[in-house]
């Protein structure tokens, strides 16, 4: 018994909660994602490690994002939202989050490759990610960085929304909550203008992402300049869905168009409302009735 307790104590004191990093699978300016393994069970997990530099930067806002992201994600339980198991700190300012491992790329990668997986499953994908985003809103959260890059698509055909580093509770009013943050190509106009946000900012991002899932093309001009991309959202009219794929229904075009209205008062008020219309349109498209 003493030996067993000693081994358990050593495991708890090991770096990253005892999860062993094996292979780097993604890297960004704020964090690195590793495939990690639990040494006792052999199970694979995803280990997100926030860079020390970004931890120090975010501490200056009076909030450690890794801890907040971990707390937020830990309470989420939906088939289309990544499962988070634990979070913690290693050393002075190296924060980490342990999540389920998904053996597949993100949707951005698949869309850029015009993957047949996306084309053949596009209606199912829409319903999966829409359902996951609606659930996030039901939990009182705004994602703020919803986009194809933040949806993983596993080999089992299940899509999972990831990355809650910018998520905020709905109704929050603070300089941090209203800071211009997110992926420029998917920011709603009010997000670009640093205005108070509600669920309709995510509805906008979902509409842009849905356009790409359905067509493998973006509705706005592509630019490498971040400021130009944001200006396009404010001043340029997007393509209509059927301009890119005339085979898609007018109902789907109308739904996506309403999601990406520049004036949020013209958008759907919630993802639940989007999903009611989307399910009906997908069912009609699948049955060949329009």
Structure description:
The chain folds into 2 domains: 14-100, Phosphorylase Kinase, domain 1, CATH 3.30.200.20; 107-287, Transferase(Phosphotransferase), domain 1 (Orthogonal Bundle). It is 41% helix and 16% strand. The chain is built from 12 helices and 9 strands. It has helices spanning 2-13, 52-59, 65-74, 107-112, 116-120, 122-138, 189-192, 199-215, 226-235, 241-244, 250-259, 271-287, and strands at residues 20-27, 31-37, 44-50, 84-90, 94-100, 141-142, 151-153, 159-161, 168-169. The strands form 3 sheets. A 5-stranded antiparallel sheet has the order 1-2-3-5-4. Strands 6-9 form a two-stranded antiparallel sheet. The longest helix has 17 residues, at 122-138. Mean pLDDT is 87; it is low at 4-12 and 59-63.
Q: Which structural category do the helix and sheet elements fall into?
A: alpha+beta
Low-confidence stretches: 4-12, 59-63
Q: How many DSSP H or I helices?
A: 12
User: What percent of the residues sit in helical stretches (DSSP H or I)?
Assistant: 40-55%
Tell me the β content. Answer: 15-25%
Radius of gyration over C-alpha positions, nearest whole angstrom: 20 Å
The biggest sheet amounts to: 5 strands, antiparallel
Major sheet: order of its strands? 1-2-3-5-4
CATH architecture classification name of the largest domain: Orthogonal Bundle
Give the C-level CATH assignment of the largest domain: Mainly Alpha
Mean pLDDT: 87
| CATH fold assignment of the largest domain | Transferase(Phosphotransferase), domain 1
């Amino acid at each position: 018994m003493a030996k067993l307790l000693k081994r358990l104590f050593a495991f708890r004191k090991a770096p990253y909660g005892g999860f062993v990093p094996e292979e780097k699978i993604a890297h960004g300016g704020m964090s690195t994602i590793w495939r990690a393994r639990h040494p006792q069970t052999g199970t694979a997990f995803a280990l997100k490690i926030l860079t020390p530099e970004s931890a120090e930067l975010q501490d200056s806002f009076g909030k450690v994002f890794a801890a907040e992201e971990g707390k937020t994600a830990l309470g989420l339980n939906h088939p289309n939202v990544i499962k988070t198991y634990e979070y913690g700190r290693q050393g002075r300012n190296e924060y980490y989050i342990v999540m389920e491992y998904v053996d597949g790329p993100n949707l951005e990668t698949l869309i850029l490759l015009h993957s047949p997986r996306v084309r053949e499953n596009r209606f199912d994908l829409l319903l999966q990610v829409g359902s996951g985003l609606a659930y996030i809103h039901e939990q009182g959260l705004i994602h703020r960085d919803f986009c194809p890059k933040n949806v993983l698509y596993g080999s089992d055909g299940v899509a999972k929304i990831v990355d809650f580093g910018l998520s905020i509770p709905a109704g929050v009013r603070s300089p941090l909550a209203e800071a211009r943050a997110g992926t420029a190509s998917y920011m709603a106009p009010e997000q670009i203008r640093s205005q108070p946000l509600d669920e309709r900012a995510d509805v906008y991002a979902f509409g842009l992402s849905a356009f790409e899932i359905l067509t493998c093309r973006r509705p706005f001009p592509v630019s490498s300049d971040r400021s130009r991309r944001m200006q396009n959202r404010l001043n340029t009219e997007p393509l209509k869905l059927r301009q890119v794929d005339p085979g898609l229904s007018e109902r789907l075009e109308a739904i996506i168009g309403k999601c990406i209205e520049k004036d949020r008062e013209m958008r759907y008020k919630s993802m639940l409302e989007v999903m009611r219309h989307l399910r009906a349109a997908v069912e009609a498209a699948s049955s060949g009735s329009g």
